[in-house]
Amino acid sequence: MAAITCIEDLRRLYARRAPRMFYDYAESGSYTEQTFRENTDDFSRIRLRQRVAVDISERSTRTTMIGQDVAMPVALARVGLTGMQHADGEILAARAAGEFGVPFTLSTMSICSIEDVASNTTRPFWFQLYVMRDEDFMARLIERARVAGCSALVVTLDLQVIGQRHKDLKNGLSAPPKLTLPTLVNLATKWRWGLGMLGTRRRFFGNIVGHAKGVSDASSLSSWTNEQFDPRLDWAKIRKLRDMWGGKLILKGVLDAEDARMAADVGADAIVVSNHGGRQLDGALSSIRMLPSIVEAVGDRVEVHMDSGIRSGQDVLKALALGARGTYVGRAFIYGLGAMGQAGVSKALEVIHKELDITMGLCGERDVHALGPHNLILPHGFSDPAMSL
Known about the structure:
The chain is α/β, with parallel strands linked by helices. The chain has helices spanning about 5-15, 20-25, 35-45, 80-85, 90-100, 115-120, 135-145, 165-170, 180-190, 190-200, 220-230, 235-245, 255-265, 285-300, 315-320, 330-340, 340-360, and strands spanning about 45-50, 65, 70, 75, 105, 125-130, 150-155, 250-255, 270-275, 305, 325-330, 375.
């Protein structure tokens, strides 16, 4: 196997080894995929300011995210169906994150359950919550996360209705997947993936099956899931969830300065500037474009994190320089997981860390806390959403 030098190397290997329906699930956006593309394209428009003849010895990427020590300001984002990208995928990714010293976020729509991950790892992880109509299920899910020792609750705000992703419909991706002839033919060619899935008992949504009323097996899961995302979610419900949880709260899916101020008002410990990886509102601006105005709007009232479009340590540096205190990678770690299992997730983190460290040095910085707009050269109007088109 050729040397892995960048995240793109992992993506290519992942494309060969993962079933097509699960590769497309990760590598797609909603509708025309404009926002999905611009999430990465807009990072490439930002240039870095090189500095020389500066002491760049003893560089450090260490910092904190919501008070938790991290080896670098990067967390593994919540990604649904991670356990279908590779057998026991959530457990493997959580282990890799723990060993590296960064947070792992478990999705409500994970294959491995909260209890599975907690019993097979040694470090606390964050739990991401989709707000469902079934309030009893929600309360029990939050309590399960508390009992498992989850150190933060990440509430997703930007999925009250699901944006249409054409590739998933064409591939028959559902819960459970529709096994069409083309899908079965493709699955038959992915022998590494198949052997892994044969060797695990974790093949369905472990946080839901057997826990939600009326969902005792995979056949009853699809109709329940389609009806459960709550379009009535508002700030009053978020306050209720905050009080029910009582611990560190991260609100994910903020893409507007006014919403950011509201999130600060309800007492969030952090917000995540995010457009759901371009998978929800197609036509929205990229997360990196919206980041500066949101940072300006909330000041130091709440910690600002960012996801969507990060594929390198240079991207991480750019987000930090524009005011983010932390970043999340989703697709980047999924590429590694689908390509090489736990070792692939570790490799993705190593690649990003090395790029961040070296780029800091070439920008004349020794500490991530010193990064700022002075490290960047921005296109005209980039930081002003009203002028960015």
